[in-house]
Amino acid sequence: MRRAEAVAGGGPVRAPRTGRPTLEEVAERAGVSRATVSRVVNGQTTVAEDLRRAVEAAAAELGYVPHAAARSLVTHRTDSVALILPESPNRVFSDDQFFPSVIRGVAAELDAAGKLLVLLTTGSAEARSRAERYAVGGHVDGVMFASLHDADLLPELMLRRGVPVVCNGLPHLAAPCIDVDHIGGVKAAVEFLLAKGRRRIATVAGPQDMVAGRERLDGYRQALAAADRRAIVAVGDFTAESGHAAMRQLLADEPDLDAVFVASDLMAHGALQALREAGRSVPGDVSVIGFDDIALATYCDPPLTTVRQPIAEIGRSMARTMLRLLEGREVEPLTILPTELVVRTSA
Amino acid sequence: MRRAEAVAGGGPVRAPRTGRPTLEEVAERAGVSRATVSRVVNGQTTVAEDLRRAVEAAAAELGYVPHAAARSLVTHRTDSVALILPESPNRVFSDDQFFPSVIRGVAAELDAAGKLLVLLTTGSAEARSRAERYAVGGHVDGVMFASLHDADLLPELMLRRGVPVVCNGLPHLAAPCIDVDHIGGVKAAVEFLLAKGRRRIATVAGPQDMVAGRERLDGYRQALAAADRRAIVAVGDFTAESGHAAMRQLLADEPDLDAVFVASDLMAHGALQALREAGRSVPGDVSVIGFDDIALATYCDPPLTTVRQPIAEIGRSMARTMLRLLEGREVEPLTILPTELVVRTSA
DNA sequence: CTGTTAGCGCGTTCAG
DNA sequence: CTGAACGCGCTAACAG
Asked: For residue A60, how many other CB atoms are within 10 A of its CB?
């Protein structure tokens, strides 16, 4: 990996055509020192106009692009941040639109700030340790976590290593968090069902190792308790299949239920199918309300009444918080985004 | 940015607690040289067992993680590769499952190889030049392009800069390409419609600045020409809205059409809606066939007959090709994956 | 098998 | 305002 030696025979010693031009080569071509080129490239204003132009010309002709590694070795910055998606790639990029929407929000905000987004999925133990090494190894300036599980130690680990962290889905951490008002949204949904005269209201809850799963169940319980009604609960894992299975379970346990709040739209889609198979009409026999308001909700048959959470805004907000963190500015320790009931046909 | 100076007063000079341990600190703690630590960290077998253990212990205690920039500055490797998605983040992470599925395939394969995936969207000119600087700047070892547009100069640019490239959607490049058999799949679809006795078969074509758009239209034309029938064409851009508009156009131009091949499932979904609004039954009055076989196809009403392309396999194949390229091995210049007609209800 | 040495390409003092 | 010199943390020759 060493540069070519001078050619034997005493001809003029020319630097070999290396793959990429370096600062030094630009400097030589422009007839200035490396330091001056560096200043120009980094937009310092303390360079004489003619030199600056010479440097810019030389850089353009050579197609100079600073070497990322060399630069970040000395600056300790990379101008890129990671978004960690604590699921397998299969899950992240499935038909659940949650992660894609978060990504979209993050990407938009980072793009505007000229930062780069690195996506990491940590669905396996191996992937998790790779992500750790990646972040701690200084590949990125900070790390954002989407939809964390309770048991995930990665955020704390990174914090301890001095990596700036922003998260979603675990509010009690020593890092700024972005989340939505799960409980308020679910209460509105259940109250809507009660106001419609529904009396036996069940729920398909989400996974209980996640805040989103627990709080949506809490909201349901609180609303029912306030109306002095009994809770009827089945638990799924946010997938359509689990929603289908949970709905069957509910129908078996409680055949006379007349409404169900399902903790995600994807599960609601599965639940609708189970109701159809059981010969129940929606919303005639059973009212159904979902949670998320992803595109699928409008495709459902009938179109799904659901609690909208601003998913892309979670991403945007995380990104903005991270950018502020990287600038050393103050940030809100906890940001709660609003949810709202979107009434369609299923309830 | 300089290390703390020795403390005045002559006490023992201790290295200040820097943010992250370096090779040197591990070496000192283990009582060996930096080189030996480097060897152990990089898994070389030429280190005596006792030293290796001492190094491993020291590294573990200090929580040593190699500094990415320093390493890749000398190795010229980063162990990560980029996947470029030549659309805006909004488009990439929309309800079109194409990109997510490609990502999934790429991620799976790269994961298995211990490489990291960096996702870049190049929907704007600015994003494009940022991606260029990123790749040329040596952040990644190679670049993969998904679903290229004809006019995209980025691949050639990167090639010229010596960056390894693999692409999808532009087969005539000086880089290995992965694509699917568009024409064969579409021919099968149209022939299926003809065999069913359909006589006035229209098409909603995709964007004509992409191979996928052009070849699917070609396949349609070839199959109709072989049957001595007239082509009836409207053009969309692969979105549901454009499919809806194109279908309305077709119905206005050719009210007695009895079948339509739509060049993407998302457009087909829009087309179905337009047909419904126009009071045409599917498949009674009009047969509809889509292209892709994403999850949406099964949600359609009626479930969509469609040409399946192995989207995730495109991603896997791109990743495998890239890995081989990075190892300096031979690769196929062109890989064509098969398509197949999946018959459901809409035709 | 191990340690010593020389850069990788760049930003950044510090003199001039 | 400019250039010379140093070091970021690491790998890879080269000696021993």
From this structure: 10
Q: pLDDT value at position A19? A: 67
Q: What is the pLDDT of residues A212-270, one digit of tens each?
A: 999 999 999 999 999 999 999 999 999 999 999 999 999 999 999 999 999 999 999 99
Measure Cα distances from B230 to A188, B28, B96, B200, B321 in Å: 56, 81, 31, 8, 41
* Count of Cβ atoms closer than 10 Å to residue B221 Cβ: 17
How far apart are the C-alpha atoms of A287 and A268, rounded to whole Å?
11
Instruction: For residue A8, give Cα distances in angstroms to A5, A14, A18, B155.
Output: 8, 12, 19, 38
Helices B211-226/B182-195 angle, 10° precision: 40
Is the pLDDT at A1 greater than 70? The verdict is: no
Chain A neighbors of B111, CB-CB under 8 A? 89, 121, 124, 126-127
Nearest CA in chain A to B103: A93
Token match 């880089």: residue? B175
Give per-residue pLDDT as tens, A132-142.
988 999 999 99
Residue nearest to nucleotide C6 (CA to C1'): A2
pLDDT of B94 over the 90 cut: no
Highest mean pLDDT among A70-74, A126-130, A178-182: A178-182
**pLDDT digits over B172-191, tens only?**
778 999 999 999 999 999 99
In chain A, residues with a C-beta closer than 8 Å to the C-beta of B133 are: 65
Confirm whether pTM is higher than 0.90. no
Q: Strand D closer than 7 Å to the CB of B24?
A: yes
B35 touches strand D (CB under 7 A): yes
**Whether the Cβ atoms of residue A323 and residue A204 lie closer than 8 Å to each other:** no
DSSP secondary-structure letter at A88? -
**Nearest chain B Cα to A131, which residue?**
B116
Per-residue pLDDT, averaged over B120-130, amounts to 88
Angstrom distance, A318 CA to C13 C1':
37
| E strand map for chain B | 80-85, 116-121, 143-145, 165-168, 177-180, 201-205, 232-235, 259-262, 287-292, 305-308, 334-337, 340-342
